[in-house]
Amino acid sequence: MAEQTISITLNGTAKEVEATQTGTDLFADDKNIIAVRLNGKPRDLYTPLHDGDAVEPIALDSEDGLAIMRHSATHVMAQAVQEIRPDAKLGIGPAIENGFYYDFDVDKPFTPDDLKEIDKRMKRIIKSSQSFRRRVVSEDEAKAEEADQPYKLELIGKKKEDIDETVGTEVPNQGEITMYDNLDRDGNVVWKDLCQGPHLPNTRYIKAFKLERTAAAYWLGDEHNPSMQRIYGTAWASKEDLKAYQARMEEAAKRDHRKLGAEMDLFSFPEEIGPGLPVFHPKGGAIINAMEDYSREMHRKAGYSFVQTPHITKGGLYETSGHLQWYKDGMFPRCISMRK
To answer: Is 325 exposed, middle or buried (0-12, 13-18, 19+ CB in 10 A)?
Structure first.
């Protein structure tokens, strides 16, 4: 009996394939293909194909491929964290420009030694070639599986339009809730996370990564929510790409305005005044004066007139601008009580 076939469009060209084929079969000879764009949306490589589907490959070193790889790296990092901190409560773990992060609710902040141990365990997980597998669950099933994860339970009840797009990979999409299991070589579930995906075929596709730093972060970016520990990392398609990125960051650090300002005795940022509030030294003041004189001269020549506005104002203006929400602890400590 002949195999049943379906018609798909592969890279814009019509193609007949067996009904049982997936992207894994279509791109079996190209190990750089880690996912597919199915009808315009990124999907796991093993996603079933249907008649009429438009299929395009996603390469590891493409923009979409890097984002998928970095998000997969967040799952590996979270798994490693829970191996050394079993009581860690999981927040969100999106891919970001040049890297990724994951937020954790832990009793004690992460130390440099913790990061070294997390790095070591991530490498062990990657080497073990765990596979990522997606499954659809009901809301009740998701809540049961995440019963000990309060932040995941909160996400299960949210709609995509009600939350920041940076957690889009965590929030149920159009009512469909999915979990991703990490499977060992024998097919056993060794870790799982609430996620929309897609992900890499397996962890060995994470070619080069580096944990960079930790920071405090409010849950979902809201100052009224609990403060969590965020671990940042970067991941690239090759060790060479990672080294090139690190070299760029080193060069950028040499040109950092805070570093240059101190070296040239132009300005400083005294802690007692607040972050982001520079005090200009005589040399820096001379530069500021020259710039202001030039600016005023050009504006007058163009027919502009000058006005003056207050340096302080009611807190409501800073609420509108967003400054009070994000920077009140460091930038406006004396203005908060005057906000009404």
So the answer is: middle
Report the pLDDT value the prediction gives residue 312, as an integer from 0 to 100.
76
| Cα–Cα distance for residue pair 91/205, rounded to 1 Å | 24
DSSP at 215:
E
Please name which of 237, 241, 231 lies closest in space to residue 77, comparing C-alpha atoms: 231
- The residues pairing with 182 across neighbouring beta strands, listed in sequence order, are 132, 191
5-58 homologous superfamily: Beta-grasp domain (3.10.20.30)
Q: Report how far residue 313's alpha carbon sits from residue 339's, in angstroms, rounded to the nearest whole number.
A: 8
Q: Reduce the DSSP state of residue 8 to 3 states and report it.
A: strand
Query: 64-252: which CATH topology?
Result: Threonyl-tRNA Synthetase; Chain A, domain 2 (3.30.980)
* Nearest-angstrom CA–CA distance, 332 and 340: 14
User: What is the pLDDT of the chain when averaged over all its residues?
Assistant: 89
Q: What's the pLDDT at 159?
A: 59
Region 25-48: mean pLDDT is 95
pLDDT over 70 (residue 160): no
> Do strands 89-90 and 99-105 pair parallel, antiparallel, or not at all (unpaired)?
antiparallel
State whether the Cα torsion 174-179-180-183 is positive or negative: negative
| Stated length of the chain | 340
User: 34: closest CA among 1, 6, 70?
Assistant: 70
